[in-house]
Amino acid sequence: MTQDDMSRTVRDLLRALDRVSLATNLPGEPAAWPYASLVLVAVDHDLSPILLISDMAEHTRAIKADNRVSLLFDGTGGLDQPLTGPRATVLGRAERITDERLKARFLARHPDASLYAGFKDFGFYRIAVERAHLVGGFGRIRWLGAPEFAPPEAAGLAEAEAGIVEHMNADHADAVQLYAAKLLGLAGDGWKMTGIDCEGIDLRRAGTVARLAFDAPLQTAGEARKVLVALVGKARTMA
Question: Can you tell me the distance from the alpha carbon of 53 to that of 106, in angstroms, rounded to the nearest whole number?
Fold first, then answer.
């Protein structure tokens, strides 16, 4: 596995998964013990994980005492031999945020979270990633610094994303359904687009998420329409 392959594998794992194991350090008794928990996650365009967690949770109390965390992104689901599959442990520091764009990106990924996102005891956190430990399968193991797997930038896409997603779901739901059914081979109606970044789009139907990668990264937000239209054309040519 080359450096580029490893970097892309980390990016794909972080973008594809909507839940992860969060590890923190407990501040009280039993003091200094590692504590693992399940959390919902979205990632920003720069791959910074975004969490929505309760002040009452043990992991939130731990973060307030020591903001160093790790997140396990496990891509081995469904494999007959799980240890042959990819997983990445991401290390970083958690910081509570008020950024409305990041909040919106999380809630687009997890629409049901809007039911409690406004509760006083819930807060959004961004993880400033420092490095990741990738296990791509047997013998394919490496530490990577955050710059080594940083995604390309698409000028203006983060700011334009919400409008693109809303437009596709409201006016081109048939196109989104084609992406899911024809390009990804997914069953069921009612697929929604939840996000778009320089390397692909995110889809969701009930509790299932999916990822459709672009053939080449977007350079600007303006390229999104052309690529999305081309994907519809590709889907319609498939049996």
Answer: 12
Helix spans in 41-123 (H): 58-65, 100-109
Rounded to two decimals, the pTM is: 0.95
Report the alpha-carbon distance of residue 210 to residue 15 in Å, rounded. 9
Q: Residue 161 belongs to what domain range?
A: 157-236
The reply to whether 124 and 165 lie within a common domain is no
Residue 25 tokens read as 């350090």
8 Å CB contact between 46 and 151: yes
Per-residue confidence in pLDDT tens, the chain, 239 aa:
788 889 999 999 999 999 999 999 998 777 778 999 999 999 999 999 999 999 999 999 999 999 999 999 999 999 999 999 999 999 999 999 999 999 999 999 999 999 999 999 999 999 999 999 999 887 789 999 999 999 999 999 999 999 999 999 999 999 999 999 999 999 999 999 999 999 999 999 999 999 999 999 999 999 999 999 999 999 999 86
SS3 1: coil
Task: List strand residue ranges (DSSP E) for the chain, in order.
Answer: 19-25, 34-40, 42-43, 49-54, 68-74, 87-97, 122-135, 141-145, 192-197, 200-205, 208-213
Residues 125 and 71: their CA atoms lie apart, in Å, by 13
Residues 16 and 92 both lie in one domain = yes
Does residue 17 sit in the same domain as residue 78? yes
